Each structure stands twice: as C-alpha cells, then as structure tokens.
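assembly run, all chains below
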Amino acid sequence: MRHFIQLLMADAEGLSMEASGALFGVLIPALISAALLLAAWSPWKRRSPSEDRSEAPRVPWWSLALGCLAIGIGPIAADLLIRGRHGLWPVATTYYVPHATVVAIACGIALASDRSRLTGRGGGRALITVVASFAITYLLTQHRVKSQWTGLERIGWLVGLSLVPATLALSMDSLARNASDNGGVKPRPPGARLAILSWLAFSAAAVVLLFSGAAALGQVTGAFAAATGPFVLLGWWRRDLPTMRGAGVVAGLMLPSMLTVQFYNEVPLSAAALLVAIPMVAWIGRLGPMRRSPAWLATLISAILGAALAGTAIAISAPPAEENPLSYDQYTGE
Amino acid sequence: MKLTVLAALSVAGLSAAALGISHGGFCGGDGCILASKPANAAAVSTVALVEEGLAASEWKVDPVHSSMFFRIKHMNTAWFYGRFNEISGTIGFDPAKPDTASFDVEVKTASVDTNNKGRDKHLTGSDFFNADQFPTCTFKSTSVSAGVNDNYELKGDLTINGQTKPITAKLEKTGEAKTREGTPTVGFEATFVINRNDFGVKYGPGALGDEVRVTIALEAIKK
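ok done. output:
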C-alpha cells in the first residue's frame, strides 16, 4: 500500500496543481467512499416487495461503521496526499485534521451502535459526542490553547467552540436515526436529504476556505464533500437505507471543525454560521405542513434552502478582486 | 551582572586607557572614544571605557534601514522576489574579534510583501507561513568564521513554521558609519539558500521551486 502511494505521488508530481487537486481532493476520496459503501452493501440488498420500504431496514452495526469510515478515510488520504506528511505529532496545528477525523470516525462508529448501555441512551450518546468534540476542538486550536489563551479565556473558548460540532453532530445523529419518524404522520423513507445537505455544506465550506487563503485546507474540505457524494447517490437510489446513520455524526463533527481554521485565515463568522446551519435545514421536513408533504418535496425544499444558505455564505466570504487568493496567480496578458 | 563584568574588565580597561587605543573597533573607524576622554578623569574613564566596551559589542538592528528579500522559482520559469518588511534583533560584534560575533534576528511573518494583496494573504495563511501560530521567523547564530576582507561564514539555527534547522550563510560586513547624533552604526549582509520543504512549507510542488534564496541586509546601531 505504501509502495502504491509512493508511485501515485511520483506520478502526480508531473500533474498541474489543478489536476493533482482534482485527483487527490475529489476522485480519490469519492472512490474510497464508494468502495467502502459497496463493502457495506450486502446487508442492504433489496427486500421483498411486500415489505414496507418506508421503514428503514435493520442494518448490522459493522455496516454502519463502514459508512463512518467511508466519509472519513477519503479526506484523511486527501490531506496526506495534498499537504504531505508532517510526522505523527506535527508542529503546526493545522496538520491535525487527520487526527481530528480519526476521533470523529471513532465517535460515529460508537454512536452507530445502540446496543451498549452507554450508546443506547441519549445521555450517553451526548456524553460521547461532547467528549469527541472537545478533543477535536483542542487538536485544531492547541497552539492557541497553549500560548495565546489563558485562564478562563482558554476554558471559555474550548467549551464554546466544542459545543458547535457537538450540537450539530447530535442533531444529525437524531435526524439519521429517526429518519423515518415523521411525528406520527405516515413514515417517510430516509432518502438522501441529509446527505445532500451535508454535501452542500462541505462544498460551500471548501469554497469559503479557498477564498480565505487556506487553499490546501479548502481542498481537504472538498474531499469531505467528495466522500459524501456516494452517500447522496446511494440515498437517492435506495431511499429506505439509513445511509447517514453514524456517518452523519462524522460530518457533524468535522464541518464546523474545519472552519476553526478561521483562526488562521479570514473566514467571516457569519459565513461560518451559515455553513453550519445548512445540515440543520433537514429539520424543516418534520415541521408543520412539511410533515405531511411527500418525501421528495421535503427534500427538494431542504435542498433549495440549503443551496441558498451556501450561496450566501460564499457571497459573504468572497474577497475583493485584488485580494482574492484564488486569482492572484493568473495573468492572461491582457 | 554588569558590576561583575565591570570588575573583571577593570584591569583591561586601565591598560587600554593607558595605551590610548585608536583603532576602528569600538568607535566606528574614525578614532577611539577613549582618546577624547580627559586624562584627569581616569577612574571615571575606566568605568566609562568598560561600560562602553561592554555596550560597544552590542548593536540593535535598525528596522528602518534593514531589508530582507527572498527569491523562489515560479513554474520553473522565472525567479520571483518577495520581501519581509518588519525585521528586528540584536547583534554582538567586535571587529577585533569577529569570530565572537552573534546574531539574533527576528522577522514578522505577517509582514511578507509581494506587491499583491491576494498573494500576501495566501502566504500568511496556513498554506505557507501560518502567521497565526508562527508570528515570527528567527535566526540565532552559533558560530562565525572569519574570512578575508570582511567576509565571514555564519552558522546558526533558522526557525520557520516552528521548525528549526541549522544553516550556513555567507556574511559580509558592508560598512560602518555614525548617525547624525554620532552613534556608531554597522552594516552586514547575509545570504543563504534553504529548501522550504525542510521547514514544512510544502504547498504548490511543481508550481513553486523547493529552493529559496534569502538575502538579509542589516543596519545596526550601537546600543
């Protein structure tokens, strides 16, 4: 495997930055995600026509664990290929994205199973998520924790920042686990709604990070979007499958965490807030008259709202032309 | 500490006063301050000599008249030059003993200037200098080897992006003078080449060269 990666990197040295970005930041994470979802496929084979397909099938825990790996392994690989290896404990805090992703995957896998005493209860799930979120936040802000923040400021920042990924992850976990629960109205299949919103959020976050000057981190965030793509396709094809169960926790933890890079680059706080809100739009499908609407309509409206939030976040974060980190390196001769 | 050093150097100070040293060492090349001290203030002169002798080897980098440039190859086509605008530090230098010189220089990474706001924003971000976590790049010398005609070999530890590597630089003493107020100044220029990958700056392989040549010109004023 190591030899294969070395060959891949050697071949990629001749590629342009755009081509290597597309290869490492899009194609590879998408392929890894698709491969792992296929490996989890067998428990998800089509059931008999007489079964109620609006009810999510019971899938084994390991199948959901593979889903968590699918959404996380690709971005880890993308980070190592795009930004290079910097040792197991890098000096620069921004190189701890793979470490943070591992913690998120572990949390997702833990919450994907509700058999243990701890994860079978809401309090236990919340505890695991908060601890994972705190660990991820610390990993990605440790230079500030160690040298810039002091005393109560340190505690305040760590607790405050970690509440955002924890809240989003628990929310997405609830949406994914109770995807068929329509509050007493006829159950709807889970569908691709949560996957679509996650894909929108990661894609927009990637653009926002590119605008902020964090091109490599933007590419890694784009890798999360690419890894979410197969979930969209699978959720669209097999609407009865709880594809985002477990994986939604990984997405919920990593989306706001990637945006803590605003400490290193200028990501507007309002844009970050809009991006984090995108997956929460899925709750609309359970509110008021939307509860009785067809699943496809709820998904369509959620996607439109999510796209509006994504577009607004991108517009807010777009810098003036002369300060655009994306375009300074282009001269056409005109 | 100052009193201890004063005591230790008092004998040397007396000897120096007696001999009337007049080389370009402490005094900037146009005569030693000692020669202008009144002879009947010997005790004061000795202390003054020792104090000035102690301070004479310490110079403060003048940020207004110091410059730092780097060059890197773009698309394997042309050299591209950039600069850092905020430089500070101290130099310990005795022309009589150039191999005892010391350089402690600091550059603010956020002061990088490539005449393009978008590029400067990118350079200070996480892809390059990561100015939020590493607000400065530093150089601390470990040795100076005297050469010919004010040329030296300077060795020391360079820290960029939190990573410290030993480097060797060509050092030239470029001149000395006095300010309008009569304070001695001295100038140095150092040049060295580094591989940016050694310091964790790996963004843009192929588009940007690995080797970066750095030239830093320092003007220092005696403390």
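Residues 1-56 of chain B have pLDDT under 50 and may be disordered.

The two ends of chain B are 17 Å apart (CA to CA).

not gonna interpret more than that til we talk
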